[in-house]
Specification:
By secondary structure, the protein is an all-alpha fold. The chain has one domain: Farnesyl Diphosphate Synthase (Orthogonal Bundle), CATH 1.10.600. A two-stranded antiparallel ribbon has the order 1-2. A hairpin with a 2-residue loop joins strand 1 and strand 2. Helix 4 runs antiparallel to helix 5, helix 8 packs antiparallel against helix 9 and helix 10 packs antiparallel against helix 17.
């Protein structure tokens, strides 16, 4: 269910040069007199990544009629923020691999990696401050706080086999969707859009982020380790109960419940257990149902968003953008 790289390359073709410029900005801003910082930055950059979040910002800015250079800078900012969360998350999760290579903390240790993540967060805000756009800086700060809240909330639910679907989606909203929504919103803020159009972009990005995370979680049960860049079943080994397992626990009966509880408690899964889990997921249609949930998110807002952007045909219909607007729990 992963998107082939050729397909992504085709999707990103209109902004290919801008994405290349984002890579150059990353290298430029990771420079420091402390040689270890650019060394670690180059290592992270060579580990790959699809750069989906910068792409969302760049595409939204194009859609909004913006053609200046600030989009590349802000796309670099969100990539710095995202990278900071990744290096911190890998420590928290105890993940040894990231995209098929040693995770940063596995190579340099936890102490240095925590400080690198802190450096990336602060550096991202310093980059944003060079543009003197207080509204965008406020948005970036808010999104970053939501992401950290999401990580903390997820930690309170780690190992909780009884996690509800609503609780799981709250984690997704905070950890992933707010940043996607922020990227699309910043693209609109750079262009000549109305407040209503800006909200439409934000909502589309937000829903795209939910879909992205649902599919990413699903890949843990449908893709092999080579594609994932980490051992299959990593989420369950780390005590993370995601939508496919929530669905399995709801529809799979006592056998499924006992097996999942045992794996989560032991933080380990045998080959036989993994085969049984995959079988049960298939028999209960849990992975199919999770995928259906993922694909329903962006389309219902896509047409509405396009209608409301500067380069789209006018519409006399008032779209209902409140159907899945970002939900925030105080």
């Amino acid at each position: 269910m992963s998107v082939p790289s050729a397909d992504l390359a085709q999707i990103f073709e209109p902004i290919r040069e801008d994405l290349e410029a984002v890579e150059q900005e990353f290298v430029r801003h990771i420079q420091s007199r402390v040689a270890l910082i650019p060394e670690m930055g180059r290592y992270i950059q060579k580990s790959g990544g699809k750069r989906v979040r910068p792409a969302v910002l760049l595409m939204a800015s194009r859609l909004s009629g913006y053609t200046g250079e600030r989009a590349v800078l802000y796309a670099s900012v969100v990539e710095f923020v995202h990278t900071a969360t990744l290096v911190h998350d890998d420590i928290i999760d105890g993940a040894d691999l990231r995209r098929g290579r040693l995770a940063v903390h596995s190579r340099w240790g936890n102490d240095i990696t925590v400080l690198l993540g802190d450096y990336l967060y602060i550096k991202s805000m310093a980059m944003a401050l060079t543009q003197d756009s207080l509204e965008i800086i406020r948005l970036l700060c808010d999104v970053t706080l939501r992401m950290i809240e999401g990580e903390l909330y997820q930690l309170t639910k780690t190992g909780d086999v009884g996690i509800s679907e609503d609780e799981h989606f709250e984690i997704i909203r905070r950890k992933t969707a707010f940043l996607f929504g922020g990227c699309a919103q910043i693209g609109g803020m750079l262009g000549a859009v109305t407040a209503e159009q800006e909200i439409a972009l934000r909502d589309y990005g937000f829903n795209l982020g939910i879909a992205f995370q649902l599919v990413d979680d699903l890949l843990d049960y449908t893709a092999d380790a080579e594609v994932l860049g980490k051992p299959a079943g990593s989420d369950l080994r780390e005590g993370k109960v995601t939508l496919p397992i929530i669905s399995l626990l709801k529809h799979g009966g006592d056998e499924a419940g006992a097996l999942i509880r045992a794996v989560v408690q032991d933080r380990a899964v045998t080959g036989d257990q993994w085969r049984d889990i995959l079988r049960m997921l298939h028999e209960s249609r849990a992975t199919e149902l999770a995928y259906e949930r993922a694909v329903e998110y962006p389309p219902h807002l896509a047409r509405r968003t396009v209608r409301r952007t500067p380069h789209s045909a006018p519409s006399h219909r008032t779209p209902n953008v409140e159907r899945r607007t970002p939900h925030v729990t105080p």
